[in-house]
Amino acid sequence: MNNTRANSRTAMSASKFTLLCNSHKCRAKLSGFAWVTACSHVFCDQHGSEEFGRSPAICPACSSMLSGKLDVFRTELAPSEQYKAMVLVGLQPETVLEISHKALDFWTYQVNQERMLMEYNLSRAGGHVIQMEKCMIQQSQSKELELNALRGEIASLKKVLEEYKRKHNEVLERLNERNRQYQKLQGLLDSLRMHTLGTGEKDPISHPFTTGLVKQRSPHSSPSFLEPEGDRFFSLGPENAKTFFQFSTPTRDRAQSFIKKN
């Protein structure tokens, strides 16, 4: 009773299942003709013809020897109605049930194999996912450490920048203070110059270093080139210089004649 229910469930699931070529190189959905083996494997018409065309035949899926006459044969997956009506005619009911049981065992094996293959692929994919997650976690931790290091470097650079700003402000403040002192001294110097110039206009003798020449007053007489200026300082121009040297030449001549006489 339990076997009957299991077979019925297998038949229901198998009715929704499509056979696939058991060659790992192909894995294509089967239609038309296929090659089936005594070890419950099935292959597409192309790969079955290539593999089982030579002797001895070996199953590509499990490497089993297929030396019997009916260990491998080519069958039609969608037989005609006439074939289905005549293939089991005349056989004993027990034989019909045994054939049906073996056919269902073949489908159960194929379904279980596909399920196991899917579970294997799923486990491999899960393993890859776990490895990728570990790798991502490691990379994330590494990037987080690098990010923290960069944040610390940025913080230290900000401190250095603030220190430079503070020093810049101090230097700027000192410069402004020096500029204010300079402006103040410049104002004092300008006022002193104005005062000096005003005093010089009133009393030329009180500042003998204005022109670098000091007027020497003679109690008896004054040279002719000093007369037009009166009591003010003079500046030696080309004409005054010529007059000066002409005035000085007789004195030099008298000094030379005095030396000769002695």
From TrEMBL:
Residues 140-185 form a coiled coil. GO terms for cellular component: synaptonemal complex. Keywords: Coiled coil, Metal-binding, Zinc, Zinc-finger. InterPro entries: CCNB1IP1, Znf_RING. GO terms for biological process: reciprocal meiotic recombination. Residues 21-63 form the RING-type domain. This is E3 ubiquitin-protein ligase CCNB1IP1. It comes from Carassius auratus (Goldfish).
